[in-house]
Design brief:
Helix content is about 65%, strand content about 5%. The protein has about 375 residues and is mainly alpha-helical. Helix 3 packs parallel to helix 6 and helix 6 runs antiparallel to helix 7. The two termini are about 35 Å apart.
């Protein structure tokens, strides 16, 4: 692979693999390597001018290069998340009966509940990690569970007032995930699961529009949106109608670009396209799972567990809704559904995953180098 130094020397180099698998070098080697580290043209090598650009670069670099840095700002993140949810209730805009967005002007809106999922994952990862290393979970299991679910409950309570039951359930699932990974007693987890089921039943059956969705789902007569979703999926058949040739997006299926994007995709790509898409999601989850098993850092394991659950929940939930397996509700399909907040939040999650994968890779390469050094020493 050939690259060019556009910033300093304008030289062209070739990247070639060394005798050690996974380690590369430039060819030919620069004549004067020192000038690359002295040059002010590289912001990563010169960060002392105090300009706004360099301050922003330093801030992002600090948290991008090491996922462990998030532990330092956990408290602030939690407060920011709670404050943003409160602001939704105070100044938020309403759409389709739900109050979930903050209008930023110039046609821009933000949905804090999407970012709160990531914030809660970071917060609970830090919380469980601190409880674990201080041996608090084994000594005070009930108190630890109350702290974990209390932290989760604040976000659940605020999001429930937005009339976003699906997001409330996702927040609850994140909280239950961290009860499981904290290795609390089965009786404690069973109790919270039972309480969650009871509260969920009341949250559905005692609220008019939610109860009507359950009634529609269980009745023989299928609702309009669900009907159009099933028509879109069935229209795709084996090979699909190909991109741009779907009919349901022309006013037949509401929200086809957001919550029902899977139906639109299925119509244009068919059964084979569905297998391909689900295969990509499965591959991503497998990669996260393998990394979770390999990584030694407990905090990284907790982060990966939360991200794994939220991606899996959204994929399964969206496909289940559009296929009439579960009642209609708003669940985005990761990296597919239209929406800036959803997309940015998911990209941030994947950025953390990549950061941890890079750490695991460095650990493995370090072990290989240690083995090579030991062999050289023995020889």
């Amino acid at each position: 692979m050939k690259i060019k130094d556009h910033f300093l020397s304008q030289e062209e180099f070739e990247i070639i693999e060394t005798e050690i698998q996974g380690i590369y070098k430039t060819s030919p080697l620069p004549d004067d390597l020192g000038k690359y580290y002295e040059s002010k043209d590289y912001i990563s090598h010169h960060q002392d001018s105090g300009s706004l650009k360099e301050k922003v670069y330093k801030f992002l670099q600090k948290f991008n290069l090491n996922y462990k840095k998030y532990r330092e700002i956990t408290k602030y993140l939690y407060v920011i998340g709670a404050f943003s949810l409160v602001m939704v209730l105070v100044i938020g805009t309403t759409k389709n009966g739900a109050k979930r967005w903050i209008d930023l002007g110039m046609g821009m809106r933000i949905q804090p509940s999407e970012f709160v999922k990531l914030i809660l994952i970071v917060v609970l990862s830090t919380l469980v990690y601190n409880l674990k290393i201080r041996n608090k979970i084994s000594k005070h299991p009930w108190l630890s569970s109350i702290v974990i679910m209390g932290t989760t409950g604040v976000y659940m309570f605020l999001i429930l007032f937005e009339k976003s039951f699906s997001n409330t359930v996702q927040i609850a699932i994140i909280g239950m995930t961290y009860l499981l990974v904290s290795e609390l007693k089965f009786s404690i987890i069973a109790l919270y699961t039972g309480l969650g089921g009871i509260l969920g039943w009341f949250g559905v059956m005692k609220v008019g529009y939610r109860a009507s969705r359950i009634a529609e789902h269980t009745s023989k007569e299928i609702g309009f949106q669900t009907t159009q979703s099933l028509i879109a999926i069935s229209n795709g058949k084996i090979f699909g109608k190909f991109y741009g040739n779907g009919f349901q997006k022309y006013g037949f299926l509401p929200e086809i670009h957001t919550d029902y994007i899977f139906s639109g995709y299925a119509e244009e790509n068919g059964f084979l396209g569905i297998l391909f898409l689900l295969g990509l999601y499965a591959a991503l989850l497998i990669i996260i799972g393998i990394t979770l098993k390999k990584v030694k850092d407990l905090y990284a394991k907790y982060l990966l567990a939360g991200i794994f659950i939220i991606i899996a929940t959204q994929v399964i939930g969206n496909v289940a809704v559009t296929s009439k397996i579960i009642p209609s509700t708003g669940i985005p399909l990761p990296m597919m559904s239209y929406g800036g907040s959803t997309m940015v939040a998911m990209m941030l999650m994947l950025g953390i995953v990549y950061n941890i994968i890079r750490t695991v890779y460095k650990q493995e390469m370090g072990n290989q180098l240690d083995e090579l050094n030991e062999i050289d020493y023995m020889m």
